[in-house]
Write a structure and sequence with these properties.
The chain is 28% helix and 17% strand. It has 288 residues and is an alpha/beta fold. The two termini are 20 Å apart. The longest helix has 23 residues. Its EC number is 5.3.1.6. GO terms for molecular function: ribose-5-phosphate isomerase activity. InterPro entries: NagB/RpiA_transferase-like, Ribose5P_isomerase_type_A. Keywords: Isomerase.
Length: 288
């Protein structure tokens, strides 16, 4: 991550501007490469600061084309962005079960070498996963800080987990048994006293774990991956988390991408491509 650390000597205001420019560059390139105004009609719009530029890029397209599309939000923030841009608003709840969105654009808190993601820093992970799995192709858009060799390396806040409020304390105990390092209920301070409440009226737990292994790590002789000493592979931990009563959904996006899912299979959580705006102004693309 030399690119990210090379910005540490830049004054804070300039660094913030650089980050915003990198997000914008990644968003505009991703939309250019993956949104076909002539063919696409159903488009998913994720949540977070980078998605603001995705919507800007789409809104800059020919209005005759975008007026024939429907845009499906992942929460209140993206719904507001779609409406403010004057784009037609859709709802996944009204989408026929057999129908698929053509493409979905969303951000991430961290992306590993296999395009597994941690999402949910903005508290919209459940609806983000619903929209991603309802899409033929999910395209991730982020800045250079989100690039990581393994999940849990750069993003230290922990895996966001959406939970039923009445089960939150029991879920914390279960997470500690799995090796979570000080999981906590996310608080709304300083803007709100008490726990953060999601768009689904749930609470969030942030659960840090040791960096999550990839299949190649075990192939290269790394021991563990099934919880031994708190060490997990991405897939093993994701499968274990969703089994805990009280957990509604977690922020690990893993498994297959849209290119790998066959007809009749469930939706894909991983992106087909991830776009990273870099500190030097370029855009780095990782394809599945």
């Amino acid at each position: 991550m030399a690119m990210a650390t090379s910005t540490s000597a830049i004054p804070a205001a300039e660094q913030a501007e650089l980050i915003e420019l990198s997000k914008k560059a990644a968003a505009y390139q991703a939309v250019k490469d993956h949104l076909d105004p002539a063919a696409h009609r159903l488009v998913g719009i994720g949540s977070g600061s980078t998605v603001v530029y995705v919507v800007d890029a789409i809104a800059a397209l020919d209005r005759d084309a975008t007026s024939r599309m429907l845009f499906f939000p992942t929460g209140d923030q993206s719904r507001g962005l779609i409406e403010a841009a004057g784009l037609p608003l859709g709802s996944v709840s009204q989408l026929p079960v057999a129908a698929k969105l053509d493409v979905c654009f969303d951000g991430a808190d961290e992306v590993d070498e296999d395009l597994n993601l941690i999402k949910g820093g903005g508290a919209c992970l459940f609806q983000e996963k619903i929209v991603a799995t309802a899409s033929r192709r999910f395209v991730c858009v982020a800045d250079y800080r989100k690039l990581s060799p393994r999940l849990g390396t750069q993003w230290k806040q922990g895996i966001p987990i959406e939970v039923l409020p009445l089960a939150a304390k029991r879920v914390l105990s279960e997470l500690e048994n799995l090796g979570a390092l000080g999981p906590q209920i996310r608080q709304g301070l300083p803007k709100k006293a008490g726990p953060v409440v999601t768009d689904n009226s749930m609470w969030l737990i942030d659960a840090p774990f040791k960096p999550l292994l990839l299949p190649r790590d075990k192939a290269n002789g790394v021991q563990g991956g099934a919880g031994e000493d708190g060490l997990w592979t991405v897939d093993a931990l994701a499968d274990q988390l969703i089994r805990i009563p009280g957990i509604v959904e977690h922020g690990l996006f893993y498994g297959k991408n849209g290119l790998e899912v066959k007809a009749g299979e469930g939706g894909a959580q991983k992106p087909v491509a991830a776009y990273f705006g870099m500190a030097d102004g370029s855009v780095q693309v990782r394809n599945a």
